[in-house]
Give the backbone structure.
Amino acid sequence: MGKYIVRRLLLLIPVIIGVTIIIFTLMYLVPGDPAHSILGSGAEPWEYEELREKMGLNDPYIMQLVRYIKQVYIDFNLGNSYLTGVSVSGELFYRLPKTLTLSFIGMFVSISVGIPMGVSSAVHRGTWRDYVPLTIALFGVSMPGFWFALMLVLLFSVKLGWLPPYGLGGIEYWILPIISSSLHGISNLARQTRSSMLEVLGSDYIVMARAKGMPERSVIYKHAFPNALIPVINILGGTLAFSFGGGMLTETIFSIPGVGYYMVKSVNQRDYPAVQGGVLLLSVVFSFVMVLTDIVMAMVDPRIKAQFASRTAKKVKEAKS
Amino acid sequence: MSDKSSKTLNRQNTEPKSENKAVKKQNQALIVFKRLIQRPTAVIGMVIVAVLLFVAIFAEVLTPYDYTKIDVLNANLSPSLAHPAGTDSVGRDILARLMMGTRYSLTLGVCSTLLGTLLGCIVGCVAGFFGGTVDEVIMRLCDVIQSIPGMVLNVAVACAIGTGFWNCILVLSIGGIAGNARMLRANILKIRDMEYVEAAEVVNCSNVKIMVKHLVPNAFAPMIVGMSMGIGGQIMAASGLAYLGLGVSQPTPEWGAMLSDGRNYLTKYPWMCIFPGVLIMITVLAANLLGDGLRDALDPKLKK
């Protein structure tokens, strides 16, 4: 097991470096001149030229790339913001806890609501206790999360005045963001759990368990549920990716100073080191969570446990959907 | 002489065969369609999609107002009989804009899904067909791209490419390449060693022809469901990008852009935000219902 974990972690290194290269290349391709965004438009031409030379913007692409990678992985420095001159690493370090709080509590809520919802839906198949959660989940996956957030603000802040519409502060400021960021996760997990429970409940070993007179409770929770959980764990990573992405919108709507809000602001202000840093950070966190889900999968699923030596690095594919 | 006759013989042999195949294929599509219309949810999805398509095509005819006409005297009107969805901050009729928005949003969703699938198919097919180093390189590249959360990647690409309608399509389809490539490659690996592929290689069929004529059509079926679901996802992503100011922007009547515009008036004139969101939801819902229905109709395992 230890060997497997180490191997998965080592495989992460090329992926993370690859992400660095891709995001650097993307930002390199952006039209526009960073010297202009730093100095504004009022400076002399030679001033721009001098700054470009100083920042190494006149160097060939490869040299700039190598310098950036060295800067990030040897000096642990993501560069300075073009606009404010503040260190991007420092900004991100201050903002990351907020994004993580939002995403992980959102994940926790999604898991603790979505999975029971799916199980109960599958167990009561064909009754109103199936249709009601199923309909809610269907609307949940179809609703844009940020629109749901706006509607929550409209109802609970504007009309009822129960909760603050934006900002940071006590726990009441987190309620709406967390509800809106977990909506998609809840619905998605409920749908996945339901379909995988239904598949398991139709299998032979469940018939066998029932046939030997096992109480229905144990059939469901001892035999069906753990097996149905495997595909669900598989999509947890994807759910997290979605909440990172949706987090950018949620943070923007509720003015939470997290990584996503920072990135969106930086994109609009053409502050590329900040965008690079933000994407890199979120991708690294996401990759680690992916490895974590892989490890959990390996522990839960005996089929994977049996073939540790073979390739199990394909889990990332769920991330998109 | 004998050569010629054998050729005609060959043609005679192959023609009825291909006809048979066509008939069979049509039948299959018909069977899937029949299974599809047995499910009420899928029918609801289809009806909604049909209505949306109708609105998208005849948007100008259906609405009495010009969606671009600015009428400051009638700005910020609440929904009434004259303006069923109210007017926006410069007095444009929101219903007319929503109808035009159907065209933009559906085009966005469909085009970006098609383009993303097409590009993904090319990449995945090359990886699956050639295998070895090519496969390894492409798949590792996909790993890297997929370790960037989807929406974050969209934002970064939008930052590089720029905003606007066509750029938005490009951004969203780039986001879909890696996932589609991986899926198609997995399907191709299943059929890569089948006899008919081997046969095509033996008769010196060119690589491109094998890929386009033999591999992709046979590996494509599972992608259809993904595409149907994908359209909904892309419409949502497009609205999110527009909301962040990185997709389609005003004055284009795209739903996400309208939402983003309406956000400023949320407290006073909430309908500017409510209606575009409801439409996005209905559209995505229809795409999901249709996708669910298709998945069940195409999946023989679930046939009970």
